[in-house]
Amino acid sequence: MSTRRDFLEKLSLPFLTISLLKNKKLYNKMTITEKDEPVLKVALMGLGSYATIVANAMQQCKKAKITGLISGTPDKLKEWSKKYNVAEENCYNYSSYHNIKNNNNIDAVYIITPNALHKEHTIAIANAGKHVICEKPMALNAMEAKEMIDACRKANVQLLIGYRLHFEAKTLEVIKMRQNNEFGKIKIFQGLSGFIIGDPKQWRLNKTLSGGGSLMDIGIYSLNAARYTLGEEPVWVTAQEAKTDKEKFKEGVDETIQFQMGFASGAIASCTSSYAANGLDSFFISGDKGYAHIEASIYYGPSKVTTSKGPLTQPHTTHQAAQMDGMADIILHNKQPLIPVDGEEGLKDIKIIEAIYKAAQTNARVYIQ
Ligand code: NAD
Question: Which domains, from first to last, does the chain contain?
Answer without folding.
Answer: 40-163 (3.40.50.720), 165-314+340-367 (3.30.360.10)
